[in-house]
Amino acid sequence: MLTRAKFYRCMLFLSIAVLSGSTIDNKPVIANKDNDAEKTGIVLNIHVRQFVNHYIQENWEALAAVKQRSARPFRLIDSVFSRYGLPKEMKYLAVIESDLKTTAVSRVGAKGPWQFMPATAMQLGLKIDSLHDERTHYYKSTVAAAKYLKDLYSEFGDWYLVLAAYNGGPAPVYRAIHRSGSRDFWTLEKYLPAESRGHVKRFIASHYYFEGISSVAML
């Protein structure tokens, strides 16, 4: 398990790297050597470094608890995402959506590890009736999530925008693109709802916690 000592060594390294003009800001957080699928291109850059540091410190125990029980769900998600040609890194979306729990239910009625609303779930082929709610079925809901993420990426061509659209729907993302005149997330983010901005940054922080800290701490 990652220790706080490793975390603080990592943060020290990052601070030194930034002060010395290191190119770490342009370096992908994740480099899964065994993943032949397309990479997300998500980076730990100047826009989110402070947020990532704060988020991991504030949520250390919760993230560690998720990490302890993540092996089985991650194997399932990796298998499905590989089949659909998605970056395996996108599995961390389920961490910020539900802590990987099938029993997770939001205050607005989203349910399951991928937190689908009923209408979206049924559009994606999941069954919801008085006897069944396939949003809580890990395999079936993950297949639905893969299809949805693949569709969103075909629509936007950028994983930051996909994450924002997954959270708040495509319409707010299109409005932000129109108002900013840009498809660059860091240019248009101020035109997005606060929840969607935070959603993207929480993903980057969780992404970094699960794969970034251990590799940087060894440098």
Average pLDDT confidence is 83
Number of helices: 11
Q: Please estimate the helix content.
A: 55-70%
Main sheet makeup: none
Q: How would you explain this protein's 3D organization?
A:
Helix 1 crosses helix 11 and helix 4 (71-83) packs across helix 7 (138-156). The chain has 11 helices and no strands. Mean pLDDT is 83; it is low at 11-37 and 214-219. It has 219 residues and is mainly alpha-helical. The longest helix is centred in the last third of the chain and has 24 residues, at 194-217. It is 59% helix and 0% strand. It has helices spanning 4-19, 49-58, 60-68, 71-83, 92-98, 118-123, 138-156, 159-168, 170-180, 185-188, 194-217. The protein is globular, with a radius of gyration of 17 Å.
SSE blueprint:
Elements: H1 4-19, H2 49-58, H3 60-68, H4 71-83, H5 92-98, H6 118-123, H7 138-156, H8 159-168, H9 170-180, H10 185-188, H11 194-217
Helix pairs in contact: 1-11, 2-11, 4-7, 5-11, 7-8, 8-9, 8-11
